[in-house]
């Protein structure tokens, strides 16, 4: 399971199966200084007996694609997506959302990912519930 986010906190006790951590940003750290990626990983693969993730035995590949200032670029995602395809990832999680549904390189890469039999799980954004408030990439 690839988690594209802010990373996973390095010293977190509830993950035993982190296979790889990669950084696609311009910051020189593999740690999650915001907590969002760690939270998402916990929902997916947390191993705390009082609050198990829905797949606690899954292998986690943590892709840092956001800086500590919550900045990201399409090019970082494209490079990371290419790597996920190259290592034959099974499932890719994007707990992200943004209004730029016209980001054609991003959208086309999402189509390529699914064409490579990678299951993509994506958030739809937090702007709803009115018409026009659903966000990319889950559109």
TrEMBL record:
The lineage of its organism: Eukaryota, Viridiplantae, Streptophyta, Embryophyta, Tracheophyta. Belongs to the peptidase S8 family. Residues 2-138 form the Peptidase S8/S53 domain. GO terms for biological process: proteolysis. Keywords: Hydrolase, Protease, Serine protease. Signal peptide: none annotated. This is Subtilisin-like protease SBT6.1 isoform X1. It comes from the Eukaryota. It comes from Gossypium hirsutum (Upland cotton). It holds the Pfam family Peptidase_S8. PROSITE patterns: SUBTILASE, SUBTILASE_HIS. SUPFAM superfamilies: Subtilisin-like (SSF52743). GO terms for molecular function: serine-type endopeptidase activity. One of its GO terms (cellular component) is Golgi apparatus. InterPro entries: Peptidase_S8/S53_dom, Peptidase_S8/S53_dom_sf, Peptidase_S8_His-AS, Peptidase_S8_subtilisin-like.
């Amino acid at each position: 399971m690839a988690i594209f986010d802010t990373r996973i906190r390095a010293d977190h006790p509830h993950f035993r199966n982190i296979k790889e951590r990669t950084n696609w940003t311009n910051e020189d750290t593999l740690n999650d200084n915001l907590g969002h990626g760690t939270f998402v990983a916990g929902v997916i693969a947390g191993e705390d007996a009082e609050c198990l993730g829905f797949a606690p035995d899954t292998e986690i590949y943590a892709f840092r694609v956001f800086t500590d200032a919550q900045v990201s670029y399409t090019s970082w995602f494209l490079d990371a997506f290419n790597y996920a395809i190259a290592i034959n990832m099974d499932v890719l999680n994007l707990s992200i959302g943004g209004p730029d549904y016209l980001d054609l390189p991003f959208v086309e890469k999402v189509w390529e990912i699914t064409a490579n039999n990678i299951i993509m799980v994506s958030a739809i954004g937090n702007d709803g519930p009115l018409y026009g408030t659903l966000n990319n990439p889950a559109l």
